Amino acid sequence: MSAFGDFARDAEDIAKQDPSLVDEGLQQVENFADQETGNHFDSEISQGFDQVEQTYGGGQDQQGQQNQ
């Protein structure tokens, strides 16, 4: 497996172990992306990050229910 593949697998394992880290990191990256684009792509950026958060972050609990 390539170095990137190893990195991606390790990142995925960490994300699944501690979803709060994913949520925090995604929020920081989302804010940076919004700032750099002048919020011109706010909707698209939010949709992408919501998808990642639901997959790896704390966006949903074990039964698939949205956290509140």
Automatic annotation (TrEMBL):
Lineage: superkingdom: Bacteria
Span list, region Disordered: 1-20
Basic and acidic residues compositional bias, start-end: 7-16
Protein name (Swiss-Prot/TrEMBL): Antitoxin
The organism's taxonomic lineage, starting at the top: Bacteria, Bacillati, Actinomycetota, Actinomycetes, Kitasatosporales
